Structure formats: structure tokens, C-alpha cells
């Protein structure tokens, strides 16, 4: 299979973890006989320094013309005071690619249970994924108003049925190839958008008789997430609820460095990035954890290229490397081998 990938290393540890992911993709290409054509482009702070814009036109064009986009991380203290900031580039890129579905797996890896601030027997076996609506809802709906005196303000929460249908469909598709359960999170006791959301979930469910469905109010879901994280499979929810709950859930594994994400559109290229930021405190030290970036590349293989076997091979290699005791500093707690970014990538590569 031949695929075009636009590579945006970005800032801070972005380029370091990206290097690792590209090495692993090379390994996949060789072992399975694929050709991944990569084009590296400037993005974020690096692009601001170069041309004044965090998302230069040639970068955007390359992204739109590719089959998938891999992103490291953007931002850093040197641009914090700027009017034009690296993060604006990311918001614009998401909008331009129309990526409406944000997928965030939350997984506690065997052997890493002790990193979680929650009791290890509680998080053991947790393995679920958020499907968050990313382009609609209260963050973007119009009107947004503020009166002249500044004493009254309005935000609007709007969803069209089409917007809800496409995200809910995504969740069911995923659940049918995972553990077969969808938890739909809403606030249907007070919100009209949530009532419509529930109806759409129930009617979509009819097409997936093998998928079990539960509805959960967002306040209760916030509690259940940390009291019984292993009970979830696919959690589908609207933009703001997903924003809040997915950050809450990020504490379950106890490490930012191992968590991937994907943002998908209907038929255009998907955007794949680790959930961590540019981690300026460790940039250039060669100790960043490449696992979040590498697992994001595995998500790209699965969701944009439909290369399931290949995605699983990468995930298995990561799993086995962690089980063999290799640890970058962020996940090292006294046992196993303290390893650099480079060594971690080598070990994963060896197990492919
Ligand atoms: P942003 O504002 O871009 O979200 P942030 O400062 O909120 O960034 P991160 O940069 O993601 O958050 O990370 C916070 C801290 O976690 C970092 O300073 C770093 O010490 C640690 N960290 C994050 N990602 C990694 C990684 N891949 N490997 C090792 N440590 C990491
Ligand atoms: Mg942050």
C-alpha cells in the first residue's frame, strides 16, 4: 500500500518523539511491504519563527493533499507573549481539515498501574476510548453575545442531527470491533440538545444489535470514570463534556507520555498526535517518552489506512517493551531499565 503522510514535528519534544515514530513506521513499511511517503513541514512555534505564521499556506496545502497528518507537539514559553501563538495554528488546522471526531484511548498498561494516583487495583484493566465531538457545541455555536455594559453574556449550545449522527455512528463502529459497549454521556435531564442526542443514540443502536448501550448523565459519568474506570469501552459525548471528561481521565494512566489521540473527518486526512504538549522542561535532553507519539502513529495505521494488523504489531511491540521493563524517566519508578528516547524506540523496533 502507498500512502502520503504530512509530518509536522512542531516544537519542544515534538521533533524528538516524531523521529521515533517515523523509525517505527519505517519498520512497519519494511516488514509489511508498504510505502509511506513523508513530507516534513513547519508548524507551530517553529513556523512562526520562520515565516510569522503558525500554519503557513504550504504546510496547510501539504496536509490537505495527504492521506494523514502526524503531529508532534506545539507551543513553548518563548511564544507565550505573542499575539500570534503556536496553538492558533492547531485550531486552524483542525478547522481546515474538518476533523469532527476526537478519539482518545485511555489505557493502563500492565506493569504501569503504580503510576496512577488512583489505587492500582482500581485502574487495573482500564481500557476505554473517548469519542468526542470536536467541531460543534457550545464552543462554536452562534450567537455569542456580550452587552455594552458587559453585564450580560450568552453562549449558544446548538447541534444539528447530522452532526450528532456522524459522531454517534463513529462510536458504534468502534464499539463493534472493541468490547461491544457504548456509553453515551449527556445531560438529558436539562438540555434539549442532549434529549436529541439520546434519541439519535437509540436509533443508531438498532443497527448494531451486538453493541450494548448505556446512557449516563455527565455528572455521574465524572464520578464513575475514576471510581470504576475498567467498566467502560467506548464513551461518546459532545464537545464540552468530552473536553472535561477526557482531561479528567488522563490522570488514570498517571502519565501523559504514553497517551495517543486521533482526530478524524468524514473522508479527508485524519490528524494524529500524542496528548502531551511540547514539554519545554525536557526538550533537547533525549529523555522524552516516545510512546504517545508511536501509539498515535498506530492509530493512523488503523483509522486512516485500515491497516489493522500493522497497528496491532506496533501496539504489541510497545506493550512488550514496557513489559520487559524499559522505562523513560517519566514512567520510571525504581524498577526496570531507565532508558533514553532513542533506546526506547530501538527496543520497540526490535519487537516489531
Ligand atoms: P501544553 O500547554 O502544550 O499542553 P503542558 O505544559 O500543559 O503543555 P506538557 O508539555 O504536555 O503539558 O507536559 C507537562 C509535563 O509532563 C512536561 O513538562 C514534562 O515534564 C511531562 N511530559 C509530558 N510529555 C512527556 C513525554 N512525552 N515524555 C516525558 N515527559 C513528558
Ligand atoms: Mg497545557
From TrEMBL:
EC number: 1.1.1.85
Coiled-coil annotated residue ranges, if any: none
Residue(s) at site: Important for catalysis: 139, 187
Reactions it catalyzes: (2R,3S)-3-isopropylmalate + NAD(+) = 4-methyl-2-oxopentanoate + CO2 + NADH
Locations listed in the record: Cytoplasm
Cofactor binding comment, as recorded: Binds 1 Mg(2+) or Mn(2+) ion per subunit.
Residues noted as binding NAD(+) in the record, renumbered to the chain: 277-289
Cofactor(s) listed in the protein's UniProt record: Mn(2+); Mg(2+)
Protein name: 3-isopropylmalate dehydrogenase
Organism: Fictibacillus barbaricus
Amino acid at each position: 500500500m502507498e500512502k502520503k503522510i504530512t509530518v509536522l514535528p512542531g516544537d519542544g519534544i515534538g521533533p524528538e518523539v516524531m523521529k521515533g515514530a517515523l523509525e517505527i513506521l519505517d519498520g512497519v513499511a519494511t516488514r509489511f511491504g508498504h510505502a509511506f511517503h513523508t513530507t516534513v513541514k513547519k508548524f507551530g512555534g517553529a513556523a512562526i519563527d520562520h515565516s510569522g505564521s503558525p500554519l503557513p499556506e504550504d504546510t496547510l496545502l501539504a496536509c490537505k493533499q495527504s492521506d494523514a497528518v502526524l503531529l508532534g507537539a506545539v507551543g513553548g514559553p518563548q511564544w507565550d507573549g505573542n499575539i500570534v501563538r503556536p496553538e492558533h495554528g492547531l485550531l486552524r488546522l483542525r478547522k481546515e481539515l474538518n476533523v469532527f471526531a476526537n478519539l482518545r484511548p485511555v489505557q493502563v498498561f500492565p506493569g504501569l498501574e503504580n503510576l496512577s494516583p488512583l489505587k492500582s487495583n482500581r485502574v487495573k484493566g482500564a481500557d476505554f476510548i473517548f469519542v468526542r465531538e470536536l467541531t460543534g457545541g457550545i464552543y462554536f455555536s452562534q450567537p455569542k453575545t456580550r452587552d455594552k455594559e458587559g453585564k450580560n453574556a450568552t453562549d449558544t449550545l446548538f447541534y444539528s442531527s447530522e452532526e450528532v449522527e456522524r459522531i454517534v455512528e463513529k462510536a458504534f463502529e468502534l464499539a463493534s470491533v472493541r468490547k461491544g459497549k457504548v456509553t453515551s454521556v449527556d445531560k438529558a435531564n436539562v438540555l434539549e440538545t442532549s434529549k436529541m442526542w439520546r434519541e439519535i443514540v437509540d436509533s443508531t443502536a438498532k443497527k448494531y444489535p451486538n453493541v450494548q448501550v448505556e446512557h449516563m448523565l455527565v455528572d455521574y459519568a465524572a464520578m464513575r470514570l475514576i471510581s470504576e474506570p475498567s467498566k467502560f469501552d467506548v464513551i461518546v459525548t459532545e464537545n464540552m463534556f468530552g473536553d472535561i471528561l477526557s482531561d479528567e481521565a488522563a490522570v488514570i494512566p498517571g502519565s501523559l507520555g504514553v497517551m495517543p489521540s486521533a482526530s478524524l473527518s468524514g473522508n479527508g486526512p485524519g490528524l494524529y498526535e500524542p496528548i502531551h504538549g511540547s514539554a519545554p522542561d525536557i526538550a533537547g535532553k533525549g529523555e522524552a517518552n516516545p510512546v504517545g507519539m508511536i501509539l498515535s502513529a498506530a492509530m493512523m495505521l488503523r483509522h486512516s489506512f485500515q491497516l489493522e494488523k500493522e497497528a496491532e504489531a506496533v501496539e504489541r511491540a510497545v506493550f512488550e517493551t514496557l513489559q520487559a521493563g524499559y522505562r523513560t524517566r517519566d514512567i520510571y519508578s525504581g524498577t526496570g531499565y531507565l532508558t533514553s528516547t532513542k533506546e526506547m524506540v530501538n527496543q520497540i523496533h526490535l519487537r516489531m
